[in-house]
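Title: Prediction job returns without error message
Component: structure pipeline
Severity: low
Priority: P3
Assignee: unassigned

Description:
Job completed but the reporter wants confirmation the result is attached to the right record. Sequence as submitted:
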Amino acid sequence: MITISDAGLSDIKTIQKITNMTWPITYGEILTKEQLDYMLDLIYSDEALTKQIENKEQLFYLISDSESTIGFIGIEHNYNNQAITKIHKIYLLPETQGKGYGKTVFESIEKMALENNSKNLLLNVNRFNTALNFYKKLGFEIKETVDIEIGNGYLMEDYVMGKKL
């Protein structure tokens, strides 16, 4: 049984801890250590997370099982003023994989999206991320291939994936 609860400024250290446990495993063979460190600082520094939370750029939630916090999500309803919920961040600790937690979390995101009048879910995934197949199993389809410049000469090489609700 997992629970999903609102996250705020007091949860920044927890979000960072989960990020530091998941990112090297998720992206360690895809990105250079330099790009990984750059992106962690760009997206997950105290300053960056504070801005994202305070400005409500994304709604953050913690994912917990009966014992501890096992992940987090960052979503945005009404993305680009459309009936879309964008999943900006979804990370679960590696030891939770294969237990059905990911599917349960996506069901919860879908429910939140529908409650906020979204008709579609959208997410970006690195083109070399093994989670790509998981998203396809959940009904997401590749809509677009994008290269996003993030500074320092680095690119995020992503697929934009979507799912109708």
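Comment from assignee: result matches the submitted record. The chain has a mean pLDDT of 96.
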